[in-house]
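Hey all, quick one. A colleague (J.T.) asked me to put the uridine-5'-diphosphate-xylopyranose job into the tracker so the inputs and the structure tokens live in one place instead of scattered across chat threads. No bug as far as I know, just bookkeeping. Sequence used:
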Amino acid sequence: MERVSVFGTGYLGATHAAGMAELGHEVIGVDTDEAKVARLQAGDLPFFEPGLPELLARHVESGRLRFTTDPAEAASEADVHFIGVGTPQKHGKHAADLTQVHAVVDALAPLLDRPAVILGKSTVPVGTAAQLTMRFQELAPAGAAVELGWNPEFLREGLAVQDTLRPDRIVLGVDPGRPGSVEEVTRRIYAPILDAGTPVIVTDLATAELAKVAANAFLATKISFINAMAEVCDAVGADVRDLADAIGHDARIGRAFLNAGLGFGGGCLPKDLRAFRARASELGVGESLAFLREVESINTRRRGRVVDLARQAVGGRLEGARIAVLGVAFKPDSDDIRDSPALDVAGRLHLEGADVLVYDPRAMANAARSWPTLAFADSVEDAVAGARLVIVATEWQEFREADPGALAKLVVERQVIDARNCLDVDAWCAAGWRYQGLGRHAS
Ligand code: UDX
């Protein structure tokens, strides 16, 4: 059992804190947001993530996991400190905003008067960890006895618990000049995961930082690649899902992340891509990542494409057209609407004067906060009642399993745009719907 703290109790931090408690450690979660700390301490998760409420409640109850706003408690009680705060996009810029990371260093370092290991998990521009090492050692009374490693987090929303407890790999960056005890401590903390055979890549700090942004850039590129193929499929009447299967069986390519549709969004991929490009330009290698600009343009075009299809479907003018948008979360099993392609489409249709009614199983409260003028329905049925067009914008299971025959009776026109290519085309067509996917045969 190790005594660890986790700074930041957002998506990454809260999940990691609960995960570390599940591995048997004694954990203190630290956040500046008093309301959030109070909720977590009461065992109440402020966002939706399958399996996490149970984990949180179990370990808060056992006393193995607690939360505080006071970094001094973390400094005095823990020997290992994870940094899991957010690194959002800077306002008006592409670069990452490291304010929260620096705030953790400034709050924690002066309190470290005995040897400690800091493990960075936040996604940061390459080069940050080396700077933070110097800053910690400068500010901490324990000086060089404070060691830093970089241990990026690859968790996916909706699968965060599984990804924390059973990750594909553990990446650890250490300063090769002064390896110290970081690797040994990290191996102790993750012992149950490593015992299960999980691969570990121990490398230098810069490579570990790059591992995260490179992984996200690759995933985004895969999605935009198949979306570009969807554009070509549309031009020739080919089917992008069959195409993805056809190329995905090649083990060198792989089928994962080849689902064409509305494209990627969320709190990570879009902003990490931009920050990576900004950092590459600073480093004088902007050219090397120039292709990511195209990856982003392909991604943004998807949203415009769905709005265009919607306009055509209702006769060329969106004004006054009743449209049901099913899904506003950036992906299923999440209530996250950050950079959500689905919410963007709903908003664009609304701005063009369409009479949009939105339904999402989990994300409506968040969507209503960021788009207060959008109208929301209580159920799929409410959303589609009286609609001239239904758009499936997030592939929730509830939508994939909806009965097209029953919904057909509620709408004014049987038209569906399957913006996630997730519906059973034959079943919808058999129920009399005019089906349109993205990069699929229209029928
Ligand atoms: C991502 C990375 O996967 C994860 O490793 C990292 O730690 C954080 O960022 P997440 O944002 O939870 O995780 O979502 P992910 O499952 O990667 O999906 C990202 C977006 O791509 C979603 O909007 C999703 O709908 C879209 N997507 C994904 C596609 O459009 N097609 C696909 O084939 C896969």
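Adding what we noticed when we looked at it: Residues 153-157, 216, 219, 223, 257-259, 261, 263-266, 268-269, 330-331 surround uridine-5'-diphosphate-xylopyranose (CB under 6 Å). The two ends are 60 Å apart (CA to CA).
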